[in-house]
Design brief:
By secondary structure, the protein is mainly alpha-helical. Helix content is 61%, strand content 4%. It has 3 domains: 103 residues, Fumarase C, Chain B, domain 1, CATH 1.10.275; 234 residues, Fumarase C, Chain A, domain 2; 105 residues, Ribonucleotide Reductase Protein R1, domain 1 (Orthogonal Bundle), CATH 1.10.40.30. It is built from 19 helices and 6 strands. A hairpin with a 2-residue loop joins strand 1 and strand 2. Helix 4 packs across helix 5 and helix 14 crosses helix 15. Bound molecules: arginine (ARG). The site of arginine has 11 residues, from helix 6.
Length: 467
Amino acid sequence: MSLWGGRYSNQIAEGLYNINSSLSFDFRLYHYDIRVSIAHVKMLAEQDIISQSEKSRIVEGLKEINKELELEIKNKKFDYMQTEDIHTLIENRLFKKIGKTAGKMHTARSRNDQIAVDMKLYLKDVIRDTKRLLLNLMSAITQISKDNIVTIMPGYTHLQRAQPITFAHHLMAYFYKFKRDYERFDNSLRNINVSPLGSCALSGSSFDIDRKMTAEELGFSKIYKNTIDGVSDRDYILEYNFNAATLMLHLSNLSEEIIIWNTSEFSFIELNESYTTGSSIMPQKKNPDLAELTRGKSGRVFGNLMQSLIMLKGLPLAYNKDLQEDKESVFDTIDTIKAVLAVYPSMVKKINVNKKRMELACEKGFINATELANYLSRRNISFRKAHKLVGKLVIYVEKEGKSLTDLSLKELQKILPEYSECFDEDIYNYLDIKNSINNTDTDGGPSSTEITSKIDKAEKYIVKEQI
Ligand code: ARG
């Protein structure tokens, strides 16, 4: 039975029933909907709007329904089309259980404030879980970084070898991206922690309700200052969708790199077999499916963000049924993030690093050319000039099929005779890649001391947040 048929003489069209029904997706809110109803009727009793015994009967009934629904869903006995939505389902069942007292539960509230408060409670738990999973990923990154503090590799710009870095330096860049994601999820709790309950349909209630009491009972720190805003605000859903999209963007970037590093062309890493799948035709293949699917799934998460923005953009105040469309997309995002983060950290932890290949890649591509320009500019040559001179040296060694380190002092003096007094043995300290990395003591740079201290701080951060 629907909650609103009083003024209707006929049934609504079957097609409308199908499109209107949200139970197939809002069923996942049942537990929150029941918690909200319990808080609401407790307040109604406290305010003498219903009696204490009515409250007790309703609360008992709701608790039983909670257990029944849990079992039905678990045992796959739940009928997803049985009624319009989760609120109707729970109220109908309450009627069956306790009779007409059930009709008092909906005093001084509406499904409009009910659904908003349900979603906020649900998202609070989701964010707690998302944060926990993200910490696992951040921890996997610090672990593998710790094993690769002195693993040198070329750093890239434009996917061209640029300057020498370490694998730890590269990976820790992702740590900070994920840390920002983590903090964004955490910050979003600020807006979630405001209770819309008591906004009712849009304008509150002429009953003497206590909005602060229900807010406190449900763990909210504030209440909406405007009831129209309370029922129409969906910023918290946009925030989750945006935060999830940014997280997926970072995961997609990392996945792309993992895929490239894992190719035979690069061979910088080898993925553990358990995170790859085979080909039905090419027996030799081990495809990086998890990384590829993560990269691929970022698309649907970005799409979900767009969907929610577009769905909201033309709405007048206050509640409009369009708002029901906020759910499937955010649920899809939540499920996607959860599925990816459940397995991604262990893939990262079990990456086999081919340190030799990375080091070998540093020998090609003249990645010590900038350091050579730095060497010259320390000898009273402007950096612009030094840059040009090194360009000449690069042309020379490229022609000769040599690398910059192969050049003897004599050769250097011969190629650039006007600068012959600038060249001495110290130049080889600058050309040596390991040396040059460790000499780069820029805060946030690749040197071992710098990275070790950053990893140490990252580990402490994770421990602090895990508590
Ligand atoms: N299923 C609805 C939603 O998700 C619940 C609120 C319904 N409100 C209404 N006035 N029909 O938004």
